[in-house]
TrEMBL record:
Alphabetized UniProt keyword annotations: Chloroplast, Plastid
Organism classification: Eukaryota, Viridiplantae, Streptophyta, Embryophyta, Bryophyta
Gene behind this protein: psbT
Designated name of the protein: PsbT
GO biological process terms, semicolon-separated: photosynthesis
Source organism of this protein record: Oxyrrhynchium hians
Gene Ontology cellular component annotations, sorted alphabetically: photosystem II reaction center
Amino acid sequence: IFSAIFFREPPKIQTKGKK
């Protein structure tokens, strides 16, 4: 689920989701 968000959302969300 998290991986899908990283690919779909922009890099901004990816940084927050990663942490």
